Description:
By secondary structure, the protein is an alpha/beta fold. Helix 5 links the parallel strand 5 (about 140-145) and strand 6. The protein has a single domain (about 10-254), classed as NAD(P)-binding Rossmann-like Domain (Rossmann fold, 3-Layer(aba) Sandwich). The longest helix is centred in the middle third of the chain and has 29 residues, at about 105-135. It has helices at about 20-30, 40-55, 70-85, 105-135, 155-175, 195-200, 205-210, 220-230; strands at about 10, 35-40, 60-65, 90, 140-145, 185-190, 190-195, 220, 245.
Amino acid sequence: MSTLDGRVALVTGAAGAGIGRAIATRLASDGATVVVTDSHARRLEEAVSEIREATQGKVIGHVLDVGDRERIVAVTDTVHAEVGPISILVNNAAVNVMGPIFDYDPADWDRVLNVNLSGPWMLSRQAMRQMRDDGIPGVILNISTYAPDVGGEGIEAPYAVSKGGLNVLTRSCAHEGGPYGIRANTLSMGMVTGTRFTDALHPDMQDREREKSPLGRLSHVDDIVEAAAFLVSDRAKNITGETVNVAAGTHMRY
């Protein structure tokens, strides 16, 4: 059953093989017109084609570096003109440059905060204006992590700081958007199998993380997609300002 017919969903960082692309595919399957964005032009073109073929849905792509505010304005304005107001925004794009505070490069700090926090703020600002001005109830879904709760353990302070700020942004959007029928929630996670980060780059960390789960397992990308599909749908119409942890309970063991 198509549950998102007539909705326009913009998903950032959605051209790779991970969570963003999986969410974009599911939203297209659920009937939304999906705007796939990514900073990598060739990969974006391939993703749009493959998602469209897999879902038979309406899928368009726009090259977007979420650290570029002028480009955010241009893309969101173009989307509004082409397919209508954005009614679902999934802030998924993120970067993580790890290193100790003592030696951290200020340029890396600025980049992490710009992509992970300032970009989602600007995108939320643009999307919420469209929702308000067009009278379209909408949803902001911020993809986050429980890293802020452990203080950037593992020399990733900038990433944790940016995600902590994103969690606060969620609640601000929920407060200010509520009178216009706009909801905002955070989908928080830990290590997720079925992604390049976990399976290819950090297979050595999986056992340690699994031991912290009361359920004795890690989340898979399909678990994240299922939660995202629920949170942006009318099934969650009375849920706003929340942080939903889809982490098999690992966040409780730190």
